[in-house]
Amino acid sequence: MAQKIDFAKLTLKDALDLAILIEEEAKVRYDEFAGLVGGRYKGDSDEVFKNMAVYEAKHRDELKARRAKLFGNAPATVTLDALDDVEAPDRGQPRVFMSPRQAMEVALLSEEKAWSYFDDALGHVKDGDVRKLFEELRA
Fold first, then answer.
1. What is the pLDDT of residues 71-126, one digit of tens each?
2. DSSP percent split of the chain into helix, strand, coil, nearest 5
């Protein structure tokens, strides 16, 4: 059963942990998709998904560095149970031989889904630092 996030009580550390998990989930999903769709030529849909995985990993690593600077090795209290496909593309989206345009549309839908998640969450966030982080992630 999914852990429910109480955005009103979320600390900055927990918000960073949540954001890191969101980026990691998306990265893993894009890696899976790259293997599923196959690549027929340079610039095919597999490369779109591979590039998205690289971007998600970069975002995750930036957030990890920020968290480490602020909180060192403090243990995380937010787990993967707290989210489900926040930014990760829908598992039913990839198709063998999908076009690069179709792959980009999958990625765009995922980014829009993440924007909505953070936009909705902002309506409940009380902590100023968490609000600033979520506004940054939404942008």
1. 999 999 888 876 766 777 777 888 888 999 999 999 999 899 889 989 999 999 98
2. 65, 0, 35
Q: Kindly state the tokens that stand for 14.
A: 């927990």
Q: Which domains does the chain have, with CATH numbers?
A: 7-138 (1.20.1260.10)
List the one residue out of 101, 70, 86 whose CA is nearest residue 22: 86
Residue 73 carries which side chain, given as an amino acid letter? N
Phi-psi category of residue 96: left, alpha or beta, with phi > 0 → left and psi -120 to 50 → alpha:
beta
Nearest to 108 by CA among 69, 52, 54: 52
pTM (whole model) above 0.90: no
- Cα-atom radius of gyration of the chain, to the nearest Å? 16
Contacts of 15 (CB under 8 A, 6+ apart): 127, 129, 130, 133, 134
Task: For residue 62, give the amino acid letter.
Answer: E
Helix (H, G, I), strand (E, B) or coil at 11: coil
- Give the whole-angstrom CA distance, residue 130 versus residue 109: 25
